[in-house]
Amino acid sequence: MNKLVESASVVTPDIIQKYRDAFGEQLTTNRAMLDRFGQDESFHATCPPDMVVTVRTTDDVVRVLQLSSEHKTPVIPYGAGTSLEGSVAALYGGVCVNMQEMNKIIDVHPEDMDVVLQPGVTRRQLNNHLKDKGLFFPVDPGADASVGGMISTRASGTTTVRYGAMRDNVMALEVVLADGRVVRTGSRARKSAAGYDLTRLITGAEGTLGIVTEATLRLYGIPEAMAAAVCTFSSLESAVDTVIETIQFGIPIARMELLDDVQLEAINRYSKTNYTVAPTLFLEFHGTDASVAEQSEAVSAIAGEHGGANFSWTTNTEERNQLWRARHDAAYASKALRPNGAIWATDVCVPISRLAECIALTRVDLDENNLLAPIVGHVGDGNFHLVLLVDHNDVAEVECAQKVHERMVNRAIDMGGTCTGEHGIGYGKLDFLRTEHGVGVDVMQDIKKALDPLGIMNPGKVFVR
Amino acid sequence: MNKLVESASVVTPDIIQKYRDAFGEQLTTNRAMLDRFGQDESFHATCPPDMVVTVRTTDDVVRVLQLSSEHKTPVIPYGAGTSLEGSVAALYGGVCVNMQEMNKIIDVHPEDMDVVLQPGVTRRQLNNHLKDKGLFFPVDPGADASVGGMISTRASGTTTVRYGAMRDNVMALEVVLADGRVVRTGSRARKSAAGYDLTRLITGAEGTLGIVTEATLRLYGIPEAMAAAVCTFSSLESAVDTVIETIQFGIPIARMELLDDVQLEAINRYSKTNYTVAPTLFLEFHGTDASVAEQSEAVSAIAGEHGGANFSWTTNTEERNQLWRARHDAAYASKALRPNGAIWATDVCVPISRLAECIALTRVDLDENNLLAPIVGHVGDGNFHLVLLVDHNDVAEVECAQKVHERMVNRAIDMGGTCTGEHGIGYGKLDFLRTEHGVGVDVMQDIKKALDPLGIMNPGKVFVR
């Protein structure tokens, strides 16, 4: 259980009553509920809001924001609670806007390959709905996140190397701004050169500029054939070189995941598998039967040139699912390495030419500091995750982990990368945003002030309040 | 020659002298130069600036903007002058910042598949430079535009269906803001969840928020094999249905261009070709030899089901180049239909399910009004271009064309589309931005005011000043 801190709230019982008058049974101040809605899956301290309002319509959200503007109440949107940087912690108290009941899939357009939906829809709910239509939404961050949360953190994941991130697959949004104005950004056209790209300004704003109440997402046809493959390497470099060459050859690979030896060992223990304990690539190919075979063979040849061993591929669905189940269970497998430890999942992203070096230096730093931390990466994007296993109650260990983490993030930025590839800033990476963007943070804050002059939207996230 | 209007300039000789003191021979007030730099390739009236400063470094741009802030002088960046909505017209006079000498390709990173360059580099210059490295930059708007201009108008083009638009392929920018601050947005990491997406805010801002002084672009490997194909249809619907099905099947087609019968006739006359005069698709496939053959055969089969005739494909480079030369010369071919007419090239973009209907209704409207206007489209994106041939001196005809244009744009917006897929707003589509985005335009203007409080950045573009 994460440490729980009390928020710096100045919300009075009188103010809460105003919301109660407006929302009746849609509002709760039940302590267990407040705790639940102040918590995500991050390592960071949880922080309960003063109240939770479960919204059902865009109008509900408008009313919340009008009231909140009037009373200068902080507003924190909540999707599925799977964020990893404390995005939902109510640092200054206020009203948590629970989006989970805004979970309708409004319209699927098979000819246009898009879907219009409410932000409380989760990734799995969406793909279950689409299956019969031969369509799928590819962005896969692992967790069963809500679409609204994925938009707000600019999520990506295992398939981004082929299908892009949320940035690339959000076509249009309906957003309620701090003052209650409802804005529609984008359209169902595949592209537009009309005015500022508000869709992509809101995507990744972590609820600090407005609350997403509807989204239009791009869809893809479920491929005719899918194949999975595994290949082990004697070094991180050779695994990464295989990936670099695969991309250079333009092979449209769908998934390319790198797991280091520590992660493989954790998976073998947890999932009762017997993968070779060595730097390993998990791969997936999408296409026709012929093109999937051609891709697999091409990557096998490339891997061979880089000393890859035991390359095996399969189009068997059960074997493929088993592979990706093992990959998706990596976090649980890591946790099982130290049952009484907490998971601190963090990510950075670098130019792919620096990836092997960045991971290797991080591994040395971890070993020198006796920290247990498997590494997995969306290697086609240059993005990797460190899953630190830390005892919350061991102050020295937490401090040590913080320092290793800080060095890793600064290393990634120094290499021309970013402090987070897909988790967001939340309040866990505030300082690094400045290191990475410098004056750019002032520009972001100029925009924040222009759209949220009272500073009520998810305060303390992305920027220090 | 376009109509020339005098700007509403309030720039005094004293102010011009300040710039002359700072920039010496880099500044000109030569009348012919002023006229040249106030003109793009649009139908809209040209409007010369008071002076042109040819910048060579980011510091030069900083000094221009510091002086311009001090004297409240309008600033208009100029790339290659190929814009189509009057983006470079100095409506309020001021200083044109000529970016053409900032044309260095700074660094190519083959392993990371990216390039760092100055914004004056043109598309062809870049691809000539990359050829020997087996790499290319795919965004192809037709004209040999500058990279800075392509960023500023959020350009796309024939290959967007496969490789995305500028939105998807700009990784990072250096931008000088109105007050002279230099901001670096993004990084060389393939993706990031760190803070607001300033890269995509600047991409498409048409120089109204700052001047791009450096860009990092994503590159792709030149495919092992390329094939081109042509296919004619008895109706627009069947051509578009072929495209819809091709995308649904996930065939990674590289180019898919729709040309209507009027356009084909113009091409046949101009390029001495003998294409069937009917709705036609020009296609291109990229991949390995095997996958290109597989794609061609798959699309041929789909086209056959929709009544497509004369499907022929080739991997012969000369034949392929001939096809795309004919496509790229479409604008000249259109112009040749009416040598004394001016070209009014405009574009809209709709969900692809509405494309055939939108084009057909537009064709009826054109015919009913006796207007000559070939139609070509990047059909995979739902984007089409109307090339109106209008006599500038015929007031009644210009008015008639304006009305047809207005109906077409409103039709596209009503169908869930956008008033421009790739040309931008400039000052030619100001009213339509409001129709399309409503309250969103207020939000855009809030951002504009926050970043350019004096309103000196390309005033009168995107928004009415």
Brief overview, please?
Two copies of one chain form a homodimer. Chain A has 465 residues and is an alpha+beta fold.
Structural summary, described in words:
The structure is a homodimer of 465-residue chains. The first copy, chain A, is α+β, with helices and mostly antiparallel strands and 465 residues long. Helix content of chain A is 38%, strand content 21%. Chain A has helices at residues 13-23, 31-37, 58-71, 123-131, 147-152, 160-163, 166-169, 198-202, 236-248, 261-271, 289-305, 317-328, 330-336, 355-368, 395-414, 430-437, 439-451, and strands at 27-28, 51-54, 75-78, 95-98, 105-109, 114-117, 135-136, 170-177, 182-186, 210-218, 220-221, 225-232, 255-259, 280-287, 309-314, 342-349, 375-378, 383-390. In chain A, strands 15-12-14-13-17-18-16 form a 7-stranded antiparallel beta sheet, with helices on both faces. In chain A, strands 5-6-10-8-9 form a 5-stranded antiparallel beta sheet. A 4-stranded mixed beta sheet of chain A has the order 1-2-4-3, with helices on both faces.
User: Helices and strands of chain A: which structural class?
Assistant: alpha+beta
Helix coverage percent of chain A: 25-40%
Strand numbers in spatial order across the main sheet of chain A: 15-12-14-13-17-18-16
Quaternary structure of the protein: homodimer
Q: Which chains have the largest interface?
A: A-B, 96 and 96 residues
User: In the CATH scheme, what's the topology name of the largest domain in chain A?
Assistant: Uridine Diphospho-n-acetylenolpyruvylglucosamine Reductase, domain 3
Q: How many angstroms separate the termini of chain A?
A: 26 Å
Number of domains of chain A: 4
Uncertain runs of chain A with pLDDT below 50, 5 residues or more?
none
What does the largest sheet of chain A look like?
7 strands, antiparallel
Radius of gyration of chain A: 22 Å
Q: Report the top-level CATH class of the largest domain in chain A.
A: Alpha Beta
Q: DSSP helix count of chain A?
A: 17
Strand content of chain A: 15-25%
CATH architectural category of the largest domain in chain A: 2-Layer Sandwich
Mean model confidence by pLDDT of chain A: 95
Number of strands of chain A: 18
Overall geometry of chain A comes to globular
